[in-house]
Amino acid sequence: MARNLATLVRDLQRRRGRERRGLVVAEGFRLVSEVLDTGAPVVGVIAVEHAAEALVAAARQKGIDTALVPEREFRGLADTDTPSGVLAVVEWSPLALSDLAAPDIGRRRLLVLDGIQDPGNVGAMIRSAHALGAFATVALDGTADVRNPKAVRGSMGSLFRHQVATAAWREFVDWGKREGYEFWLATPKAEAVGAAAAGPRVALVVGSEGHGLREEWAATPRRLVGIPMLQGAESLNAAVAAGIMLYELSRDRR
Amino acid sequence: MARNLATLVRDLQRRRGRERRGLVVAEGFRLVSEVLDTGAPVVGVIAVEHAAEALVAAARQKGIDTALVPEREFRGLADTDTPSGVLAVVEWSPLALSDLAAPDIGRRRLLVLDGIQDPGNVGAMIRSAHALGAFATVALDGTADVRNPKAVRGSMGSLFRHQVATAAWREFVDWGKREGYEFWLATPKAEAVGAAAAGPRVALVVGSEGHGLREEWAATPRRLVGIPMLQGAESLNAAVAAGIMLYELSRDRR
């Protein structure tokens, strides 16, 4: 069984393998522990011998397939430079827009990633969306793979507790208009984002730091929003900016 | 000259080399452009032939030593997996606490990194501190090297525009008390951070996600502050949390 799980993990190192199999790899002690807690469908756990005995025992108790491997072999499976010695393979695929379950009552806040290229940032943003009250995150085409192991790690389990969809830009805009969303575009030096100005349905769109938002937005009704910068600074890390704006948008819920 | 600069960069790949020489490497098109704009003391620029001609010309015009190297050689010097083909070597060392120049008037806000291990996060936090009104960032022992190329990149030039000091924990606490700082410790699930409760001098201390803040804080007068989480989420990325708290603390300045 060890051989099968390890072969599977090697296949999941490639984007195509993750897409075809509908599986992701969650690596690290804290993350695997978190994933086992969420009740996500874990298909297997691989650990270095003696590295994570309690976690391996917990997985076995849940009837999950486990494999112990030598440290050297684990390094070949791990995505991190200094692996903590345990990983889980989890059934997970992004949703389609039509699958998103919106809250029946109250405000709807969506985080939209438009060309975020750093998978660690993608994961951190999913984590922020979950913690700061968005009901879902949508990753548009041009954004790093939400199934990338760095994105899974960056989300710290939020990937399994929060709705994440992928969509092409055109498809998203058509859907968003139909559903009555205001598009709020994060833009350096724009007016300060503020919950007071927000209607019941807001999609906060954050673009890449290098390339910004795609030009097609220019022809779409939208509001440009930003964060006031002090001391002549230009901008913030995209995940930090998204976090602050989500925090500001959630102000009326706190 | 090309040979000398390349040898220098190789030495700067090690922490000891950076410390001994008082130099850091700033890699990437946007960052090198930013660094040349800040007027930071650049001692050399290395680029792949034809990759960054305007930047190389701008550096030469400033009398900066430049070297063009083949792409293959550049990959050996670069810290990134997919290098954009240009880097700058810059004179930079962290300050001591006694060197920090505090604003004469107005509030004093300090960001303190206590064991942040991811150098990219360290850089993002320095960038946030600069943009959100802290007058300096202090990296305590146990935090990743602020001279690490990933930290330099993550700061997106803020390292050269914002005061960054390093200190041992004990030294920092003694200094902070003498200077009249309140220590605000970022803690999941603590009371919400709020500018209204802040005195004139606040040091916001953010710890590692994995290990939290060091135990020695327990014996120090301090306030525990947090960010309200929604939807049962546990925590945020450390850089995102620091950004939101700095934003909240800067509220009275906006």
Q: What tags apply to this protein structure?
A:
homodimer, 254 residues, alpha/beta, six-stranded parallel sheet, four-stranded mixed sheet, 9 helices, 10 strands, 34% helix
Question: What is the rounded Rg of chain A?
Answer: 19 Å
Q: What series of H and E elements makes up the topology of chain A?
A: HHEHEHEHEEHEHEHEEEH
Strand content of chain A: 15-25%
Query: What general form of chain A does the structure show?
Result: elongated
For the biggest sheet of chain A, the summary is: 6 strands, parallel
Count of alpha/pi helices of chain A: 9
Estimated structural class of chain A: alpha/beta
- Which sequence of strands runs across the widest sheet of chain A? 7-6-5-9-8-10
Low-confidence stretches of chain A: none
Name the chain pair with the biggest interface and residue counts per chain: A-B, 40 and 41 residues
How many DSSP E strands of chain A?
Answer: 10
Please state the average pLDDT score of chain A: 92
Give the oligomer, counting copies of the same chain as homo and different chains as hetero. homodimer
What features would you describe in this structure?
- Two copies of one chain form a homodimer.
- In chain A, helix 6 links the parallel strand 5 and strand 6.
- The mean pLDDT of chain A is 92.
- Chain A is of the alpha/beta class.
- Helices cover 34% and strands 24% of the residues of chain A.
- In chain A, the strands form two sheets. Chain A has a six-stranded parallel beta sheet, sandwiched between helices. In chain A, strands 1-4-2-3 form a four-stranded mixed beta sheet, with helices on both faces.
- The interface between A and B is large, with 40 and 41 residues.
